[in-house]
Design a protein that fits this description.
Length: 129
Amino acid sequence: MEKLSIYNGIILKLKNLLLGKNNKKIIIMEVFISKKLTGVEVVEEELLFNSGRQNFIRLKERFKHDNTWSEQIKSDWYDYLIIINDVINLRKSNKEYILSQINEKLVQINEINKRFKYLLGKDFLSKII
């Protein structure tokens, strides 16, 4: 449980320090999460991260000349990263009662994926390796 609070503290500090600097905070979170995605217990999260990142890259390129959509997409991707980080932390805590919290986080990821799918149409990627 201590590791969970340490990671959440780091995430909160990063969010506060980098608020408004979408590109930098996204890069920092991507690196942070990719380092945590080791081990068999987070295979599902790795698949979500890989597919989400591919979808984000496509959307970022597609809407790079539209500031409103571009900022919304970056915000959604950052939220997605925070949620994946939370799920990794919850899953690594190995507590059974946390399953409902994990399911709640996965619903949030699903909602962001729905927005990405709406914007990408047939180019949307589901979980990939």
